[in-house]
Design brief:
Chain A: InterPro entries: MetI-like, MetI-like_sf. The structure holds 2 protein chains of 2 kinds. By secondary structure, chain A is an all-alpha fold. Chain A is 76% helix and 0% strand. By secondary structure, chain B is an all-alpha fold. Helix content of chain B is 72%, strand content 0%. The chains are: A mainly alpha, B mainly alpha.
Chain lengths: 287, 293
């Protein structure tokens, strides 16, 4: 008798649960509906009364204009995010290897000091960073390279990415049995040789996590870009903000541009979501 | 000497990173604090040391009070909102549900989008136009008989509205953290509590929730530090408008519009301090905990 009642109550709970989850799915998808529907509307349907309606005539007009405006920014973002994430990965892998398998006195303290770099608000380093990059421009005679250029932005992202990349690799390398490293050492291999022949070949999952994490954060960054780049080196986020900030830009173009700027990271999320998740979890110091 | 030979190569390999972190993180934080303690209020002057004068003077500015208040309202609403919603979603899913993968994917995907793109959609959604000029949520609310709002233009609760897009973007992340936390509770512990006569609610209260405390703390730290330095989202939704001013935007204006490096550095220092005050104890705590294990 009680079992039956508990069962019925259980089913009722299961359905409520399902219903609530579905309701949140709908709420979560509202902005996506708005983005898509608005981006395909012709200007003639830009009236507030039709704000939530599907387009009567679907058009890619707004997409074409948005693409033309945004394309240079998208290209800059590629030039920023691809080398940036690969460099971060190389540094993080070496640091993680040393801090997990080739430890030196004070390694723990050093790691903690690194970790703090992950949490600092970048505003706290921005003004000196600008001054330093301006100085590098003058020093090298390469105007618009360090300050106002992509290389300077890559440098900033790689440096401030060291903590999180080191953390992810370290937590991954900790799971490699010490015996493997020891065996290689007994065979006479040094640190670099062991890294190259034992550690690196099994690093693929951590490399994927770090590259995806860094690519996404570099692609989506706005703060560094706003402070460090100029009109010719603006990445997609800054251009997107400028396009959308102009009063004259119709909503359809704003939405199309917002989608276009998000395509690479969305694709990564859809295709490689598993690794994306692991990066997120690493951010919580959970490993 | 032999011992040194075993660890020295490792130290050498991380030396470049140590130098970079030393210069770019600690050196520049110090440089910024140093700048904040000078009277370099324009681009050209040398800047004399004035101690903490700038840190005191800034409290005379109405705009600073406003931006601090805004940051607090935003932080409270955003952190609590994302925490509660993320927890609720994880709680509803923790025992497994059909289509769990799809649910998770949908709740999490806003994380993949930039705050700027998020801001653009939400600016449309939270448009303050009403009645026949209403677009976005106001039009939707009007159609289903709910009141229309000023959203982020509301003088009192504008920053609470501003937290909505941030909650939309981050609560999936909190859900993922909590879900991992829930799943980390060993089934034997729950079973033991049931044998001891706990009902399901009791199991949650006495077994599961206490074990979720570390996850809650992590989530709190992550959300809190995102919140205190929030910049992209505000700029994308409302630009430099004073009605939604926060310290990070104020700093941007101080550097680029007012050309006042010392003031910018002062605001930046306050942002760093507000984050450091809870992140440093947290880092020390989590490193110690890891060492114990």
């Amino acid at each position: 008798m009680t079992a039956v009642r508990a069962g019925r109550r259980g089913t009722a709970f299961a359905w409520t649960r399902f219903g609530v989850l579905i309701a949140f799915v709908v709420i979560f998808l509202i902005p996506i509906y708005v983005l898509l529907v608005t981006s395909f509307k012709p200007l003639t349907e830009a009236d507030p009364s039709q704000a939530w309606n599907l387009p009567q005539t679907w058009t890619t007009e707004a997409w074409q204009v948005a693409w033309e405006k945004l394309a240079p920014g998208l290209w800059n973002s590629v030039l920023l995010a691809v080398p940036g994430s690969l460099l971060s990965c190389a540094l993080g892998s070496m640091n993680g290897y040393v801090l997990s398998k080739w430890r030196f006195p004070g390694a723990d303290l050093l790691f903690t000091l690194f970790l703090f770099g992950m949490f600092i608000p970048y505003q706290g380093v921005m003004i000196p960073l600008v001054q330093l990059l301006v100085g590098l421009n003058d020093l090298t005679g390469l105007q618009g390279v360090f300050y106002g250029g992509i290389p300077g932005l890559v440098l900033a992202h790689v440096v401030y990415g060291i903590p999180i990349c080191t953390l992810i690799f370290r937590n991954y390398y900790v799971t490699i049995p010490d015996e493997l490293i020891e065996a290689s050492r007994v065979d006479g291999a040094g640190m670099l040789r062991t890294y190259w022949s034992v550690v690196l070949p099994v690093s693929a999952p951590a490399i994927a996590v770090v590259v995806i994490w860094q690519f996404t954060s570099l692609w989506n960054d706005f703060l560094f870009a706003v402070f460090l780049t100029g009109p010719t080196s603006w990445p997609a986020t800054v251009m997107l903000n400028n396009i959308a900030g102009a009063q004259a830009t119709p909503y359809s173009q704003q939405m199309a541009a917002a989608i276009l700027s998000s395509v690479p990271t969305m694709l990564i999320y859809i295709l490689l979501g598993r690794f994306f998740m692991r990066g997120l979890m690493a951010g919580a110091l959970k490993g | 000497m032999r011992r040194a030979r075993t660890w020295l190569p490792g130290l050498l390999l991380v030396t470049p990173s140590i130098i970079l972190i030393g210069v770019f993180v600690y050196g520049m934080l110090g440089w910024n604090f140093r700048l904040a303690m000078t009277d370099k209020h324009d681009e050209v002057s040398e800047g004399e040391f004035v101690g903490l004068q700038n840190f005191i003077d800034i409290w005379d500015q109405a705009r600073w009070h406003l931006s601090v208040r805004h940051a607090i309202v935003f932080t409270v609403v955003f952190v609590l909102g994302a925490l509660v919603l993320g927890w609720l979603l994880a709680f509803l899913m923790e025992k497994g549900i059909r289509g769990e993968g799809t649910f998770r994917a949908i709740y999490l995907f806003p994380m993949a989008i930039s705050f700027v793109a998020t801001g653009i959609v939400w600016r449309w959604l939270m448009n303050s136009g009403t009645d026949e000029r209403a677009v976005g949520l106001n039009r939707l609310f009007d159609a289903i008989g709910l009141p229309q709002w000023q959203w982020f233009r509301d003088p009192d609760w504008g920053m609470a509205a501003m937290a909505l897009p941030a909650i939309w973007q981050m609560s999936g992340y909190v859900m993922a953290l909590f879900l991992a936390g829930f799943r980390g509770v060993p089934e034997e512990l729950r079973e033991a509590a049931r044998v001891d006569g706990c009902n399901e609610w009791g199991v949650y209260r006495h077994v599961v929730l206490p074990l979720l405390r570390p996850v809650t703390l992590s989530a709190l730290i992550i959300l809190g530090h995102i919140s205190l330095k929030v910049f992209d989202l505000i700029v994308a939704v409302s630009g430099k408008q004073i009605i939604t001013d926060v310290p990070a935007v104020f700093m941007w204006v101080a550097v680029f519009d007012s050309h006042d490096p010392a003031k910018g550095a002062t605001i930046a220092s306050y942002i760093v301090l507000s984050v450091a005050i809870f992140v440093i104890p947290y880092l020390i705590w989590s490193v110690r905990k890891e060492r114990r294990q």
